[in-house]
Write a structure and sequence with these properties.
Class I SAM-dependent methyltransferase, methyltransferase activity, Methyltransf_25, single chain, Rossmann fold, S-adenosyl-L-methionine, 40% helix, globular, 8-stranded mixed beta sheet
């Protein structure tokens, strides 16, 4: 686990999101999954709670359990959502909440475990008829450039949509629908980050400057390769 005072978290503190996403992604996934307005939802690896509002709109009479390993992210989410009785905020492992959940939402964090391991861990936590929506790095072309592959910094699980679907099937699930995250989702993550980089750059020490350089390279890399790679959002259900 990265310590809270690491330059990475100096950059990411107080950002509205910890990964690409937009409210339309949540609404689409909830509709595909047939999520009822009374749904019990798990926001797995919720970060600072960037998707909580959209999840609550998807299930206005339901309840969202949001969990993340990084306590300052939960503190940030609590500052906004702590007074809402429809939300429970917890520091911990994203596979541990017992449920049962009608929808498990995981934005960009399944890669920490691998698709098969994550889906296996969540299966007993799903309510009957429940579904999982997760976003995963994906190649959108049969001939990706070296730059597109390098964008994911050696992620061993990198594959295309068919490869992701095969892993879902291997885990004993069926894929209900998929869609690629759009430019709005990515810019909703990157533009606030760029503004924070600009504020932190003056006077940054060597460690922080290196983190800022890496973040700027990531942003430029995605903008250069966004037609070739990005996140694929999959909605899946036990077969």
């Amino acid at each position: 686990m990265i310590p809270a005072d690491h330059p990475f978290f100096v950059l990411h503190a107080d950002l509205p999101r910890e990964g690409p996403g937009e409210t339309a992604d949540v609404a689409w996934a909830a509709e595909v999954a047939g999520t009822p307005d009374t749904a019990r939802i798990l926001d797995a690896a919720c970060g600072p709670g960037g998707d909580l509002g959209a999840l609550l709109r998807a299930a206005p009479k339901g309840h969202v359990t949001a969990i993340d390993l990084h306590a300052p992210f939960i503190d940030a989410a609590r500052a906004r959502w702590g007074a809402d009785g429809r939300v429970t905020l917890t520091v911990g492992d994203m596979t541990t909440p017992e449920g049962p959940f009608d929808l498990i939402w995981c934005a960009g964090a399944v890669y920490f475990l691998g698709i098969e391991a994550a889906l296996a861990a969540w299966r007993p936590r799903l309510a009957p008829g429940g579904a999982i929506a997760f976003s995963e790095p994906c190649l959108f072309t049969d001939a990706p450039s070296a730059e597109a592959i390098a964008f994911w910094q050696g992620y061993e699980g990198l594959t295309d949509a068919a490869g992701i679907a095969a892993r879902v099937t291997a885990a004993g699930y069926e894929t209900l629908a998929t869609r690629a995250l759009g430019d709005i989702a990515w810019e909703s993550y990157f533009r606030p980050q760029e503004a924070r980089i600009a504020r932190l750059r003056p006077g940054a020490d060597a460690g922080l400057a290196a983190v800022l350089d890496e973040a700027e390279a990531e942003i430029a890399g995605w903008r250069a390769c966004r037609a070739e790679t990005g996140y694929l959002l999959s909605v899946v259900r036990p077969a």
